[in-house]
Amino acid sequence: MSQTQYVNTILENLKFANPGQDIFIQAVTEVLYSLEPLIAREPKYKKHAILERVTIPERAFHFRITHIDDEGNPRVHNGWRIQFNSAIGPYKGGIRFHPSVNVGVLKFLGFEQIFKNSLTSVAMGGAKGGADFDPKGKSDNEIMRFCQSFMSELFRHIAHTTDVPAGDIGVGAREIGYMFGQYKKLTNRFDGVITGKGLGWGGSLARTEATGYGLVYFTQNMLKKAGNSLEGKKCSISGSGNVAIYTIEKLYEFGALPITASDSSGYIYDEQGIDVKILKELKEVKRARISEYVKLKPSAKFVSINEYAPGRNGVWDVPCDGAFPCATQNEVHLADIKVLYANGCRFLAEGANMPSTLDTINFMLSQKDFCFAPAKAANAGGVATSGLEMMQNAAMSKWSFEEVDARLHGIMNHIFETSYETSKEFGDTGNLVLGSNIAGFRKVADAMIDQGYV
Ligand code: GLU
Q1: By its UniProt entry, which NCBIfam families does this protein fall under (predicted)?
Q2: Quick one: pLDDT band at residue 1, thresholds 50, 70, 90?
Q3: Rounded to a whole number, what is the distance in angstroms from the first to the last CA of the chain?
Q4: What are the angstrom distances between the C-alpha of 216 and each of 339, 347, 429?
Q5: pLDDT for 227-271, tens place per residue?
Q6: Active-site annotation holds for 128
Q7: Does the C-beta of 93 come closer than 6 Å to ligand 1?
Q8: What is the rounded CA–CA span in Å between residue 314 and residue 306?
Q9: Strands, DSSP E only, in 26-152?
Q10: If exposure means fewest CB atoms within 10 Å of the residue's CB, which of 264, 342, 346, 372 is most exposed?
Q11: Centroid of chain to Cα 415
């Protein structure tokens, strides 16, 4: 049986076992095909059934969350925690609160997290959790009660050496605080069970900034290798959460010009460059819609999602040199990347998890003059810094912003080098999808072999 037939069989079995979870299948498809050259070279992975094992979560919990809204009515939601793989460290990965969350979404995220965490070189396994709850428009008290209900179940499955959650879409400093408070109340333990904590109670400096900063460090490495740099580049960014905001902030430091940001209502285009101060005020303090930006900066333009062409993400219409999707999964379609490319875009770096569809990735890889930084490698700075938070908690110490940022920078350089060198090793120099997937996978797979058939 050829490697492709072997992978096809695994994917067929996976589809049967996970009906309706196309998004999970998408994430696995991308990884498994890129592993073919490794599987061909190293028969041990097939012999020990690593692909069959690594695609099934070690453990998954589905639970009910009931909380009381401000009118006194019961509200019911689904919660999950997918503990995907613990071969190289305790389960680690964020919690997402968004109406689009279901078990398939969390399995795709948990699966990606295994290899991303492996790339960071910090000892962390892969996990993800969340709920089909929409924090948008909820009062602080509703958010608090929801977080408490969520943790009332989750606490029995986590511990600082077992599983360490963090934030993701819809879960920021406020939600982490409420969940940690409830964890402490239920367990009578104050430990590093969750990352992204407040700076006064165990959080790490630079954790909020880490994913965006890390993304820019990675991109600069990638462009440098191609004899290029971020200097003077017009960059389009989607999203306006912490990943987008701190990508924009860091891009300025490298001499680039970030010109767009977006949320679920539309995008803004500011040809003078996005004003980070305004963006932070709107999104971090006021939790306002992005359209408010143009009231404070009238020269900028707001385009509503209702004006997007069918099947398109309008933010990618803006001509740019480089694109940074930092919003959510499958936000760059084939039609989008074709428009970006035709308008002169020559690199794309993924801040969100799996923002590019499979055909978009194939398009990018087939253009010889295009550089593509895949999420697993490029956005690993967030979880890497969660790892640094765990180290500080374990040592009961606190590092300066400069120290954490310097370590983050070092980790991103290392992830780039490892991914690049691995792509070279397997005869497809510069294909960072192949390089990062193989590098991330190899370490996990070898640990699984060492630890026997469990
Ligand atoms: N949610 C982030 C990610 O996708 C961070 C997870 C963490 O810090 O554990 O990697």
Answers
A1: PRK09414.1
A2: confident
A3: 26
A4: 23, 12, 21
A5: 999 999 999 999 999 999 999 999 999 999 999 999 999 999 999
A6: yes
A7: yes
A8: 10
A9: 59-68, 74-85, 91-97, 126-131
A10: 342
A11: 15
The conformation of residue 285, written as its DSSP 8-state character, comes to I
CA of 309 to the centre of ligand 1 (A): 32
Report whether pLDDT(56) > 90: yes
Tokens standing for residue 316: 């990618």
Q: What's residue 21's pLDDT? A: 98
| Structural contact between residues 55 and 10, judged by C-beta atoms closer than 8 angstroms | yes
Handedness of CA 210, 213, 219, 225 (dihedral sign): negative
The helix/strand/coil state of 346 is coil
> Tens of pLDDT along 69-81?
999 999 999 999 9
Classify residue 326 by its DSSP letter: -
Give per-residue pLDDT as tens, 133-161.
999 999 999 999 999 999 999 999 999 99
Single-letter amino acid code for the residue at 61: F
Residue 62 has which token pair? 């589905």
Report the nearest-CA residue for atom 9 of ligand 1: 93
**Of the listed 107, 116, 128, 283, which one is catalytic?**
128
Please identify, by atom number, the ligand 1 atom nearest to the C-alpha of residue 109. Answer: 4
Which residue matches tokens 């803004």? Answer: 268
Is the C-beta atom of 125 inside 6 A of ligand 1? no
Distance 246 CA to ligand 1 centre (A): 15
Give the model's pLDDT for residue 214.
99
Q: Which residues contact 221 (CB under 8 A, 6 or more apart)?
A: 412, 413, 416, 417
Per-residue CA distances from 376 to 118, 239, 325 (Å): 10, 18, 13
- pLDDT tens, 407-435? 999 999 999 999 999 999 999 999 999 99
What is the overall mean pLDDT for the chain?
98
Looking at residue 435, its amino acid is G
205-218: pLDDT as tens digits? 999 999 999 999 99
